[in-house]
What does this fold into?
Amino acid sequence: MATLVEQDVEARALAAELRMTHGFLAGNEPEVKLPESVDFHWSKIRREIERQEAAGVGREDRGVYWLAAARRFLAPLSGVALVAFVSVVSLNLFNAGKVDDPTRQLVETESLSEHVGSISYKSQAENMFVVYLYDKDSGVSDADVEAEPIDDMVIQ
Amino acid sequence: MATKPDISEVPDEKLVRRSQRGDMVSFEELLKRHRDKIFARAFSMMRNEEEATDLSQEAWVKGWQRLKQFHGDSSFVTWMTRIVINLCLDQLRKHKRQRAESIEHLEEDLGGVERQMPTVTVNPTEGLERSELRARIDKALGQLSHEHRTVLILHEFEDLEYKEIAKRMQCSIGTVMSRLFYARRKMAVLMAGWKREQQS
It folds into this structure.
């Protein structure tokens, strides 16, 4: 970025202008004084404090402060607990069918398309489950499909 | 017997601790010391004396009510300044809701006319007395939009970081940077214009 600014004359001038503005603002904030006497200002503030205290607004006592602090601490903690709970539940669901159960694919495999058919083959001995997918609209008979699957896909 | 020290000689920290225990005399002393600074911040943001007086008064009331939450992480006056800044920002948001959104307003973040302004190459503050310089800065601040002025004040005078300004102004960091860029540009151009007027 600095190189880019150095190479471009206009950018260099602009950067110098911004630096200059920053420079003349530093330490030169306009000084303004309260336009009313301190006694009058304080009397209004005091009256307002007393009015609010009488109305029950009052000062926030230490109990309220600790409650607020506890809430600040507990809010993120409950978030973390929720995330942990969801993670554990998800992991359990994910691992539930992972155990040597070759039939689990039967639960997980679902054909949602009316144009695609499937033929499956399961071997307990090989611990294998194969699914052939084929196009129903191609007019090929089931027997042909079995002999020559159009779109093999192995899910294992 | 040792005489009780004059309250005007008691440091802020001690006055804060006494005020936290409910001593209003100590709190009044804190107000006497810092009233101008709190008012000045409110005025710089609102540009309206009456509104700034009311907001600084409200800040002191809130300061008293929340004093137990002050732990001395910053100075008392910095803490009070943050309270008045938040009140001013709330007030400016209320104003904004009342105003109809104009095209010029929507263009403000994108720089509007500031984009076409020529770059200022000669320092327009050279040779100015400090009081004159401050007066011109004040005048120029008065000509900025609320958004540009607030960003400039929070960054240049309150030393707040972009992230903190964005949080307080409820906008993105990019918007803060853009507003700051155009606010500085406009300040430079205004100051240069007055310098030229003075010379001619």
